[in-house]
Amino acid sequence: MHEWALAEAVIATVIEESRKEGLEEITKIKIKIGELQQIETEIFEFALNELTKAQGTSLLTKMKVEMDTERAIFRCRVCGNEWGFDDAGLSEDENEAIHFAPEVAHAYIRCPSCKSPDFEVLQGRGVSIESIKGRG
Ligand SMILES: [Zn+2]
Hints:
Layout: H1 2-21, E1 25-34, H2 41-55, E2 64-70, E3 73-76, E4 82-84, H3 92-100, H4 105-108, E5 119-123, E6 127-135
Parallel strand pairs: 1-2
Antiparallel strand pairs: 1-6, 3-4, 3-5
Helix pairs in contact: 1-2
The structure holds zinc ion.
């Protein structure tokens, strides 16, 4: 159900931003979804649509939603090397497992350079709004 919570947060942010910018109509928003974010985009889109309708305001009636995937990037805490999924040398099954449960990433992924399991996730987590377009 967290798709609904995320959609609510997105709509709330869009409305807040449009007030700040003095927009009367939102035409397009771009949402970035991290590769490691567990999300059903179909449910998320549906939730966004339903919540938009529920707002009952002309502010959002013309809003189009575009979704982008943000690539996951990891950084080794030992040698400072940075890499993405493509460079991690994982099998397809392992990739699937990680996409399904990001917390298992540490069980599978090692720094391709020094083989250390001690790394941080630089990007590819969470959902954020990349841009909001509208008319004032
Ligand atoms: Zn390393």
